[in-house]
Specification:
There is one protein chain. By secondary structure, the chain is of the alpha/beta class. It folds into 2 domains: about 120 residues, Aldehyde Oxidoreductase, domain 3 (Alpha-Beta Complex); about 170 residues, TIM Barrel (Alpha-Beta Barrel). The chain contains 12 helices and 12 strands. Helix 11 links the parallel strand 10 and strand 11. The longest helix has about 35 residues.
Length: about 300
């Protein structure tokens, strides 16, 4: 779910407050005020994301600054490409610079890593297998990170605990079995209290179940499961479980996760799963490199 404009403004203001504090001591002490023209230039190759918070950082600090993006989220860039042109006031441009570059660098890094996974799977002939994210996101940045995944060609899993049911191994252990967990689930989601809290009808709620072995897979499908999470499986086990699942149900969706890398993602996709969830997209993406260069000053 994308951030509302006011939520994004609040997030950027928080980042600016963290960096600026009582003021930019360096710019205020050693710069004579003058107008500048500047550019944000790419120093690496990748897919752009995080443009909105970057632009907001400049505009919140000084609304008189003129900020002109030359690319949009989802565009590719290479070293030397100009991403943004700036016509503004030296002190406030320099004060805004780091926060803007932090947002754009991190989120473009997420989009770039996502695109590498997507392209690798597609180029191997498995374009029907979707690369999706997880909840392993930086606190406060989930919505922006998930937007970056989409910019990179990936898809989003659930936004949080509130928009999808995922019965994981701990839920199964706590209830005693998959069958018991689903029995309790079916009883509870029919209650007025549940429907009121989540504002969803039973038929609108997507349910996924994590399974660890063949026995659990069969139990879940017998209970009517439409989506299964195959977590931390070897390639050999994935092939086996996917084959069994397809024989038992024509419409069950299968997701593989756990220890996914660019080195093994094609092998995982070749097992026939519908989704591959990759936590690294949001928790381990390398930062894309951008810098601000002054091109003219008065």
């Amino acid at each position: 779910m994308p951030l509302k404009q006011q939520e994004l403004i609040t997030l950027v203001k928080t980042a600016l407050a963290e960096d600026i504090g009582r003021g930019d001591m360096t710019s205020l002490s050693c710069l004579e005020p003058f107008s500048v023209k500047a550019e944000i230039i790419a120093k690496s190759e990748g897919i752009l994301s995080g443009l909105q918070p970057a632009l907001l950082a400049f505009m919140i600090v000084d609304s008189a600054n003129i900020i002109m993006p030359l690319k949009k989220n989802g565009d590719s860039f290479k070293p030397g490409d100009i991403i943004i042109k700036i016509d503004g006031f030296n002190q406030t441009v320099f004060t805004s610079e780091r926060v803007a570059l932090n947002f754009m660098g991190h989120l473009s890094g997420v989009a770039t890593l996502t695109n590498k996974f997507v392209r690798k799977v597609a180029e191997a002939g498995h374009s029907g297998c979707k690369i999706i994210d997880t909840r392993k996101t930086l606190p406060g940045l989930r919505a922006l990170q998930k937007q970056a995944v989409v910019a990179g060609g990936g898809d989003n899993h659930r936004q949080g605990l509130y928009d999808m049911i995922l019965i994981k191994d701990n839920h199964i252990a706590a209830t005693g079995s998959i069958s018991k967990a689903i029995k309790l689930l079916n009883e509870n989601i029919e209650t007025p209290e549940f429907r009121l809290q989540f504002a969803l009808h039973k038929d609108e709620i997507e349910i996924e179940i994590e399974i660890s072995n063949e026995k659990q897979l069969k139990e879940a499908i017998e209970c009517g499961a439409k989506r299964l999470l195959l977590d931390n499986q070897s390639i050999e086990n994935l092939h086996k479980l996917v084959s069994i699942a397809r024989n038992l149900s024509d419409n069950v969706k299968l997701e593989a996760s756990g220890n996914v890398s660019l080195e093994n993602v094609v092998q995982i996709a070749a097992t026939g799963v519908d989704y591959i969830s990759v936590g690294a997209l949001t928790h381990s993406a390398p930062t894309s490199d951008f810098s601000l260069k002054v091109t003219d000053q008065k």
